[in-house]
Fold each of these.
Amino acid sequence: MRIFRLFKIILTFKRYGLFQILTINDKTSRFAGILAFALWFIPQKHKDKSLPVRVKLAFEHLGPVFVKFGQLLSTRPDLIPSNYIAELAHLQSKVRPFDTKLSKQIIENSINKPINEVFSEFIDTPVASASIAQVHRARLAINNHEVAVKVLRPGIAKIIDKDIKVLKLAALVVEKLFSDGKRLRPQEVIDEFETTIHEELDFLQEAANSTELARLHKNDKRIIIPDVYYDYTTKDVIVMEWMNGITISDIPALKAQGIDLEKLSHYGVEIFYTQVFHFGFFHADMHPGNILCSNDGRYIALDFGIVGCLSDEDKRYLAINILAFFNRDYKKVAITHVESGWAPKDTPIEQFENAIRAVCEPIFNKPLAQISFAQVLIKLFQVSRRFGIVVQPQLILLQKTIVNVEGMGRILNPELDLWKTAKPILNKWLREQMGVKGFVRNLKSELPHWSYVLPTIPRNFATALTKLQETSDLNQNYNKLVRDYRRMSGLLAVMVIVLTIILVIKL
Ligand SMILES: Nc1ncnc2c1ncn2[C@@H]1O[C@H](COP(=O)(O)OP(=O)(O)O)[C@@H](O)[C@H]1O
Ligand SMILES: [Mg+2]
């Protein structure tokens, strides 16, 4: 079966004249020549259109996986030329909605109740039909609340698996045939794509992501996140609160409603940086299709199939880079990379520092309002890779999302100053992290752990000592351990005092 799919993809490439992409070096041109010769009988379509446009059309023709993959590539200016980025960003699924009968059957099977019992009203024509799911508008029988019912497209997991296998094969070919195939990191890109697209297939995960973000934003008046009705939510179906709003890409409709676009753009950027720096948990699919604006100008977030998680270490990495960028202290960035183990121990610091300077200085020469966080990150990651640093997937996801957020912000408000919007959020976070408050908070958060571990230390030491005593030839180690134990007791005493003080403050 996979071979048929592969054949269909090759035919589509021929039909849309995409073998031209392969004419990069002698080896690849020969390969393209042989393929073209073997498929001479397939006529080419859209001869008058440019190559990036033809790539876009071919991806649309190849279906949901390619559309999603193209959308992902459009957020990787570090890998793909800008003329392709512009086209791929406009990729849209042209999948037909699936039969509503089938939709209802899936809902009944997964909720285990007849549709009429659960919903007092169910609108057959779907409000949206995308590559992975279809959304219906309905009303719950139990409370008359209006809901959106998102149903997983039947058979989608199989389609995805098949296409991912083909993409993996293509990645291998690209790496072997192109001289700078490795630089494009095709295998890495496909692996990441596979992870995110699989995550999107589990609606229970999506529902949990949505609830977690709603909890984190609980007192935030800028954003609305739909409630999930867990009684009717399964792996294949999500039932959630219906959101009335205008899609964020419909500028004329937003203007007609009298929405303050400048404010909305600030909300978007602020929400994103709050999620990144304060929560370490961010909505990683912030494209305009997933964002609405409520009638009173608030930001409505939808579709939490992809989220990113950042550890404190990741946040520190970002903060150091951003701060060092402000201070033009590139040596600090280089040294921290090595000290923290991100870069190999033998990284030539001066060369690394120079390379970072070379990417950052030109950006700094622009007015601040025009500086893009995405560009800074992309360039830094490029340098990192050159020096053997593997950029973590969650940071790549962050890069992708920043590209989305900046794009969205600037559509709403071309004057948007990204630094100005982000700086207060960053400063607040840094104050919290690096000041005394942060120190005390971190200590407090470690308290439960220490209250459990501390009392067991003396017993563990005593057990270890007895064991050592039993083996006479370990006398030397024994003496050393006794010395360490004495030193340790001093440390333990200090820790106990500190913990007591914290406990007193806490109580
Ligand atoms: N809670 C909701 N209220 C109103 N419309 C919704 C809701 N959830 C989804 N939609 C509509 O359905 C579309 C697709 O839903 P989404 O969750 O983004 O699915 P997909 O993963 O297929 O992109 C959205 O762009 C929006 O128009
Ligand atoms: Mg969506």
Amino acid sequence: MKKLIILFLLVNGLISFAQEKTFKFDSNKLLKHVEVLSSDLYEGRRTGTQGALMAKDYIVRELQKLNVEPLADTHEQPFSFTARGKQYKGINILGKISGTDVPNKYIVISAHYDHEGIKNGQIFNGADDDASGVSAMLAFAEYFKKNPPKHSVILAFFDAEELGLQGSRYYVENTIVPLESIKLNMNMDMVSRNDQNELYITGARGNEAFQNAIENQKASDDFKFLMGHDGKDGKQNWTFSSDHGSFFRKGIPFLYFGVEDHKDYHRPTDDYENIHPEFYKLAVQNIISLFVEIDSMEL
Ligand SMILES: [Zn+2]
């Protein structure tokens, strides 16, 4: 009888371990959000255009469906700026999930929802850049519904990244929570396609705990993390290539997730049809897995 009980406990333990290791979200929805946001209807989501407003409404609606509360009174943080001699109005979207163990320390998870708009009559749909990051954040929100994080999380959908990291720059100057309570920015920008099944992480070098957490993630033929593009490996330096740069300028550690540039990068062919669905699903799984490990550390 004792042996049976031990066996029962062991099997149960194995089952719950296996369950713990899959990070559940609806992968059909993951793809669907990218397909919608990068469709012609959204006209390339250029800051201040009708298409960008539609994308903003879409994201806010999804956050409401997932019961993600706003960081401030509403989900929207409007701002204005001048870029290339032109006045723009942008809107960041900010949601909050309270942490269970360390609610007064924050991890900001981010992606930008704006893209290049229409040029010479061609729509730049920005499926990989960065509808993929936006949809990954909605997968995070879905995951957090059943698995609340230990640290508080701010889900920041930034506007006007393509016009010079404007939304994230405005955000770090107007953070709503104290700047020093933000312990990490995890920024996703282009995470849905790579011919080698590789996803880069920039920002981990020099932080042993983050490096170890990344090395602990399982690699396979279908997916692996690579660390680099941080100015130390002879490759293009991505330290300021996207919104994580605004956090880094304020001295906040960051981890940036992004694929190597591809032939459709900043071209009208960055379309939904050209993303790699299986790679993308694994990328989001693995980023959530890494988040869980980092969230369990002292930040
Ligand atoms: Zn981008």
